Amino acid sequence: MVTLRLHRIFGTDGRTVIVAMDHASYFGPIPGIDSPGRTLRAVVEAGADAVLTTAGIAARFGDCLGRAGLILRVDGGSTNRAPQPGPLRQIVSIERALRLGADALVCMGMIGHEEETSSLHVLTSLVDQCSSLGMPVMAEMLVKREAGAHPSAEDIAFAARIGAELGASLIKTPYVPPAEEYRVVTETCYVPVVVLGGARADNDRSVLTGVDDALRAGAAGLAMGRNVWQHTDPGGMTRALVALVHGRATVDEAFKEIQT
Predict the structure, then answer these.
(1) Are residues 19 and 48 in contact, defined by beta-carbon separation less than 8 angstroms?
(2) Which of 51, 145, 244, 255 is the most exposed place for a label (fewest CB within 10 A)?
């Protein structure tokens, strides 16, 4: 069952374009996903393999997913208005996720953060609950960084391997250049690694170049949010990413899919 569900997330080439739309459970109705149904329809029509989102969006707009896989966010604990972030905990039951039609579940792994212990507890518990049901778990492995600094490839490799060791079927984690150094992440993690998109970038070409570099470093695809649905042309950006990931297009070729 794990393999069957992963086939709804990954293409036959072993790669995937995931659009992440779980941000509103922490940030509220931010621009780009203030109308989730419209955004869902646009990215699915443009060829996204899967959507990573919340139980609320899946329940209300699940009919917009079409053939795309559903990755459900099941952890949380506070919002960006909380005076102090609370410990992460599981907030969606496996039974509810199954009723919503989830193909995989996702939770955080906060290495070096105050929430490290609680997040890894959620991850191990979730893997244990899902093992008998054939449900894949994606671990979103983040590394605490010093102010103004990016984590190193070695730091990310450490975090990704921890997620794999705790039983995750795939890892979502940042990409840091150069590609030659990032290979340590994909070569030491024995489950697929997809790179996250991060904050909204000012330059579309730089986004596509980063994805292209990550793919050359062995990444199995991406899980991107704001750089898709905060774009003026979410469908075009999705098509550009699909061209890079599945079509093996160059950055210049992929860029032509975007209406600027």
Answers:
(1) yes
(2) 145
Location of structure tokens 């695809």: 221
Q: How far apart are CA 88 and CA 9, in angstroms?
A: 25
Spatial distance between the Cα atoms of 4 and 185, rounded to a whole number of angstroms? 26
Q: Which residues contact 237 (CB under 8 A, 6 or more apart)?
A: 204, 207, 227, 228, 231, 257, 258
Task: Give me the DSSP letters along 191-228.
Answer: S-EEEE--SPPS-HHHHHHHHHHHHHTT--EEEE-HHH
Structure tokens at 172: 């979502």
Q: Is 20 exposed, middle or buried (0-12, 13-18, 19+ CB in 10 A)?
A: buried
Q: Residue 246: which residues within 8 A CB-CB, separation 6 or more?
A: 11, 13, 15, 17, 47
Q: Choose which CATH entry (3.10.20.600, 3.40.50.1980, 3.20.20.70, 3.30.1360.40) describes domain 2-255.
A: 3.20.20.70
pLDDT 10s per residue in the chain (260 long)?
Answer: 788 899 999 999 999 999 999 998 989 888 998 989 999 999 999 999 999 999 999 999 999 999 999 999 999 988 878 787 778 999 999 999 999 999 999 999 999 999 999 999 999 999 999 999 999 999 999 999 876 678 999 999 999 999 999 999 999 999 999 999 999 999 999 999 999 998 898 899 999 999 999 999 999 999 999 999 999 999 999 999 999 999 999 999 999 999 76
Residues recorded for the chain = 260
Longest CA–CA separation in the chain, Å? 47
CA–CA separation, 112 and 215 (whole Å): 27
